[in-house]
Amino acid sequence: MVAVSLALGGCYRGAGALGNEGRDTINVLMVNNPQMADLQRLTAEHFTKSTGIKVNYTVLPEDDLRDKMSQDFSSQAGQYDVASLSNYETPIYARNGWLTPLGDRAARDTGYDQADLLAPVRKSLTAADGKVYAQPFYGESSFLMYRKDVLRDLGLTMPEKPTWKQVAALAAKLDGARPGMKGICLRGQPGWGQLAAPLTSVVNTFGGTWFTKDWQARVNSPEFTAATSFYVGLLRTHGQAGAPQAGYTECLNDMQQGKVAMWYDATAGAGSLESGESKVAGKVGYAPAPVERTASSGWLYTWAWGVQKASTHQDAAWKFISWASGKDYERLVGEQLGWSKVPAGKRASTYRDPEYLRHSGAFAAATKNAISSARPDDPGVQPRPAPGIQFVGIPEFSDLGTKVSHEVSSAIAGRQSVAEALDKSQRLAAEVARAYQER
C-alpha cells in the first residue's frame, strides 16, 4: 500500500519562547490507525498554530511502518524525527542505541505529568538501563466483549471472571441465538500481531510458553498444543465466517454488525462498539480476559512515540510528543471528535475525568483494570527468558511469530492438523532458541 504523506502546518507566528524551534518542521512516521488519523486532523489547527512547528506525516499500515522504521532507525539516517513504535520495539531499539531517552525531558516538562502514566505502560517503555525511551499515545490490554442482551434472552450469565472452558460452553449456546449469529470471534489472520497475539495469551494461561527460561523451545509441548487445539477447535466449531482471514478489523466489524455474540480482543475496540456507528452500542458487556491456570491473562500493548537519536530536531520532536500524549490532547479529542475516540489506556487521570466516564463508563473500569493487572514479566506459570505477554520480547519474534501463525491459520482452515502445524513451528522456534543458547 502506498504511503499517505501529508504536510500539516500552520502560519508561522514567530519563535517567541521557542527560540529557533518555531521554524522547525518535523517528520513523523505513523501507523494508519483511526486514532492517528484523528491526530492528523487536529495537528495544524492546534499544535502548529500554538508552536509554529510544522508536522509532515507519513502514514503506513503496521507491517510497512515497521519495515520503514527499522530501515531508517537502524541506519540512523534521520529521515524521520518521530515514529510510532510499540512496547515490543522500544526496548530492542533502545538497546541498539537508536532512540533518544525521553524520561528527563518528561520530568522537566511540568505540563506533561509523567507520574500520571499507568505503571504497566510506563514500565513497558523503559529499557534495561532504567531509562524511558518512548511516550504512549494510547494503551490497551485484552478482554472479553459479549452481547448482554443475547445472554439475557437465553437465560445465560457471564461469570465475573470467566475461564476459557466456560467461554466455550457459552459459545456453543450462543451460536445461532440470532439469525446468522456465531458464538465467538477470534483472530485467525496470520501475523505476529494478529493471530499470534490472542493465541499466545491463551497459551500462557493454559500453562504453555514459547521458550523456557534457559531457551528450550516448547511450541509443540502438551500445554502449547492443548491451548492451540482449544483455540482452533473453538474457531472451527463456533467461530465467525472466514476465520482464517479474519483479524482485528474483521472481528470488530462482525461484532458491530451483530454477527457474533462474543469477541475476545483488544480493549481498544470497546470505543468503536459503543460509538454512534455501532449497531450494538449499549448492548455489550465487558469481562476480564478468560483464564485457566493463571490469575489473569490480558495482554499489554501501547502505540507510543519514539525519537530517533539522529534527529536534528530533538526539542521540536519532544514538543510534539508532549502535546500528542498529553492530558489536554485527550480533552481536545473528546470535545471536538467525541469521547469514544479519546486515545485512552495510558493515564490514570483519564479514568477520573467525569466527561470521559460519562461517555465511556461501560468499558472504562474494565479497561483500566485489564491494563493494571497485565504482567509482562510473569505472564504464565513458569519463568520466561524475555518479557512479553502476547509476544516474546526478542527481535526474532516478529518473523517467528508470523511464520508460526501461518501454520496455525492453516490448521484453522482445515488444511493440516494442529499437531502438524506445531511440529513445523517447533523446528522454527528451536532454530531461534539455538542462537540464544550459544551466546
Automatic annotation (TrEMBL):
<dbReference type="InterPro" id="IPR050490">
    <property type="entry name" value="Bact_solute-bd_prot1"/>
</dbReference>
<dbReference type="InterPro" id="IPR006059">
    <property type="entry name" value="SBP"/>
</dbReference>
<protein>
    <submittedName>
        <fullName>Sugar ABC transporter substrate-binding protein</fullName>
    </submittedName>
</protein>
<dbReference type="Pfam" id="PF01547">
    <property type="entry name" value="SBP_bac_1"/>
</dbReference>
